[in-house]
Prior knowledge:
- One of its GO terms (molecular function) is methyltransferase activity.
- The protein has 363 residues and is an alpha/beta fold.
- 47% of the residues lie in helices and 13% in strands.
- The protein has 15 helices and seven strands.
- Strand 6 (343-349) and strand 7 (354-360) form a beta hairpin.
- Residues 1-39 have low confidence and may be disordered.
Amino acid sequence: MAAILARAGATATAGSSLSRPTACRRQRNSVVVAAVTGAGPAAPQEGELERPAWSGETPLSRLVGALIAFKPLYSLMKLASREVIIRTAEKSNIPWREMTKKVLESDVYEVFERIRDPNLVYPDYYLNPFHAYDEGNLSWLAAAEAEPATMSIAKRAIPEAPSIEEANQIVRGTWLNAIEEHHLKYSGNRQINDILDIGCSVGVSTRYLAEKFPSAKAVGLDLSPYFLAVAAQKEGELSRQNPIRWVHANGEATGLRSDSFELVSLAYVCHECPARAITGLVKEAFRLLRPGGTIAITDNSPKSKVLQELSPVLFTLMKSTEPFLDEYYMLDLEETMRQVGFVNVHSILTDPRHRTVTATVPY
């Protein structure tokens, strides 16, 4: 399989100047966006394309899709993807198995019963297998492994960082700085008092937001009661001026009051959703934000040079566990936000793999 994909990738690259539409090519001079100031990793670069050649309706993307659709091969890809993720994490000194075991042997199951909304109806897309879990995010194993998987995101983004802690400081720090800078510039001096983290998973991003804006009240919302139980259990071990509130709900229809927040964040959520759901999430964020409020979406950047240059084996394994990746890369997220009503829409590469898109609800 690896040999077939390598040849396909080489063919796609060699024929790119003839086969790729002009609209998909970027200027030869790559745009460089600073992720950090002063000493530190090199600033992340945009590639020459609008999106990776392995996404969308390109011949390479269709080949990968055909391979994934072959169920025996898909099963092997899923196992291989999982092994690569865990092995890479452990090579980076992330104690994946120990962290997972600690969660599974805790009293998190009692928290689950308190936090779950038994009447919640899950959208159809959420019931698909992904991330190499047959039950998707609706399982204890997915919830137990979510935090080490999240730590791996930072290390993959900043591989030269000497430690996981430093990689996290860079990835999360540049993301939080982008949010703060946008809000200060466009909010009309509106203070951030209420924060909503949609798709909060096990609460890693929610805790970063709460620490960045300690005077604000933060809410973490997710479709997975398993993830929320892990988040709530960990929060119970911490001492915080304003404890985070956890809500089991659909991010497209939260049931929360309109005009309730100054900041709505979606961190690494949209690439897991079909285009219709991403649009629904953006619309709901617009409804929930007060005038002058900020939406911040951080996720894979279609223009990332690193992602555009992934090896065929790696991007095939990635696509095998992310069923909506093509839809995410094909969607013009910035234009979607403008059509919903957001203004001051800005996108910046906050690390070599990820962009942060910020926008404002007008007064």
